[in-house]
Structures are given as C-alpha cells and as structure tokens.
C-alpha cells in the first residue's frame, strides 16, 4: 500500500468515516505533515536528491526535457482541514533548474475544530538557480479557516517564477476565512512582504476598493537578475467586469509583480498569463 493510501486510511480510522468521502471530518487535533523536495545540479543535469512525501502530500517525479527537474504534488485526500498544520519545503541548490506543480486544486474545508489550518510553503533557491512554483488554485470553501504563508529565500543570482491563485468559494457559496502572506528575501534583504485576507470576519474584503464582487484573485512574481526593469506599472484587462491586473516593478530588486482579480478562475489565469508574456517580452 502506498504512503498516500496508508495516510488516508489512518485519517479515516481516526474520524470513523470512510476514506473515500469527499469531506472527511478530520482528527480533532488536526494533522501535522511536512513534505520535502531537494534538487541539486550534478554538473550535467538537475537531480532530485530528496523527495519526502508526508500526510496528504504525495510527491512524484515528472518527465522533463533538458537538464531540469519537475515534481508534481498529488493530494492523498482532502486537506487542509481546520486544525491541520501542513508544510512543504522546497530547496533548489546552486545551478539547479526545478519546477514544482500540483495535480489538482487545493481545497480548504471546514474541519471538526474552529482552529485555523495552516499551510506553509518554504522555497529556497541557490546561486544561478531557476525555481518555478506553479500550483493549481487554492479554493477557500464555505466554513473553512486557513492561514497560508509563502516564505521565499533567493540567492542574489537566483531566478524565480511564482504563481498564486485563490478561488473564494465554490459554485454558489460564500468563501471561508483565508489569510495569505508572501515573504520574499533576496540576497538576505526583503524584496516583498505582503498580506491579504478575505472572507468574514475581515472588514470590507468584498467592497469596491478590494474585490468588487470578484471571486478569483491571484498574483505572479517574476525575479530575474538578467531582466532589465525600465518600466512603470501596466494595467491589463480592458473591462473591469471581466477582471483586471496590474504589473509593476518592485523596488528591492530585478522583479515584477502582477496582481489580478477576475470573476472566474479561467479569467484569472488568462490575466496572469498575459502579465507573464508582457513581463518577458516588453
């Protein structure tokens, strides 16, 4: 039996619910799990020196071309639930080329406790390293309570592409409470410190100055020492009813940040893709 299947059966045994249910009750104290990815460059290609699956995270090597490595994160079961403490640690050593993605959206659900769940992603990239973090969206379901944190540490010559997408509620439902933080350091100095919060009890989160009724939000961060920053902010999206995005340079380094809102997940992805093309070719 795979570690993912064993974990699903273990959690089901704790809750007294079948492992195949879409929304298991979860253990009252929550699940603690840490998955780790370590990529190194051996002089010819990037190798995965560590793939440690844990809890709801099953890590799988994916086929690539050239000297890069690619890892897919497959959810073993519904997570995070209230009270869970989940962590993914990704380290790409000097000159490594690594991409990490997820097989499906991450679904934050209401748990058996009102305590928030935490989902921490820790990314580290060494010198002359290229790291791409491109997961599928995070869905904040009604009644969920999640604290998500990205902590990123980049060497001075590292390159990063990070995409974050959040869907606030499933079809015809209100979102849960979602607090997200993005902390990025480059060469030991702060590059970006950002906090966003959506859903009750956050004041004004759905007002005209924040989302204005949109339910898909996201951002794309591009850091590249070889990128020339010779531009001001750029507004993307012709009709605000279909969503819009702003692409702007960051003061602390050769970096561009796109922030977007849209009524649907597909609209959000289109805006972020447009922002990336603009960042790479303008």
TrEMBL record:
Keywords: Chaperone, Cytoplasm, Nickel insertion. Its main location: cytoplasm. InterPro entries: UreD (IPR002669). GO terms for cellular component: cytoplasm. It is found in: Cytoplasm. The keyword Chaperone applies. The keyword Disulfide bond does not apply. GO terms for molecular function: nickel cation binding. Belongs to the UreD family. UreD, UreF and UreG form a complex that acts as a GTP-hydrolysis-dependent molecular chaperone, activating the urease apoprotein by helping to assemble the nickel containing metallocenter of UreC. The UreE protein probably delivers the nickel. Required for maturation of urease via the functional incorporation of the urease nickel metallocenter. This is Urease accessory protein UreD. The gene is ureD.
């Amino acid at each position: 039996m795979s570690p993912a299947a064993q974990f699903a059966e273990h959690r089901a045994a704790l809750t007294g619910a079948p492992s195949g249910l879409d929304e298991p009750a979860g253990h009252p104290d929550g699940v603690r799990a840490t998955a780790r990815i370590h990529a190194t460059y051996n002089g010819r290609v990037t190798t995965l020196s560590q793939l440690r699956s844990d809890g709801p995270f099953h890590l799988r090597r994916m086929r690539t071309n050239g000297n890069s490595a690619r890892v897919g994160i497959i959810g073993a079961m519904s997570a995070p639930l209230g009270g869970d403490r989940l962590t993914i640690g990704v380290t790409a050593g000097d000159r490594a080329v690594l991409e990490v993605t997820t097989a499906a959206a991450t679904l934050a659900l209401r748990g058996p406790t009102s305590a928030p769940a935490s989902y921490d992603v820790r990314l580290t990239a060494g010198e002359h390293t290229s790291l791409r973090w491109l997961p599928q969206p995070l869905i904040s379901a009604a009644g969920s309570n999640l604290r998500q944190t990205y902590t990123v540490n980049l060497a001075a010559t590292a390159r990063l592409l990070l995409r974050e997408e959040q869907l606030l509620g499933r079809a015809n439902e209100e979102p849960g409470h979602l607090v997200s933080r993005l902390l990025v350091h480059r060469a030991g100095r702060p590059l970006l410190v950002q906090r966003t919060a959506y859903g009750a009890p956050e004041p004004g989160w759905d007002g005209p100055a924040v989302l204005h009724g949109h339910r898909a939000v996201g951002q794309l961060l591009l850091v590249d020492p070889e990128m020339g920053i010779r531009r001001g902010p750029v507004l993307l999206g012709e009709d605000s009813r279909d969503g819009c995005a702003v692409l702007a340079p960051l003061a602390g380094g050769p970096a561009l940040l796109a922030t977007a809102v849209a009524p649907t997940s597909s609209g959000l992805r289109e805006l972020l893709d447009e922002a990336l093309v603009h960042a790479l070719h303008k």
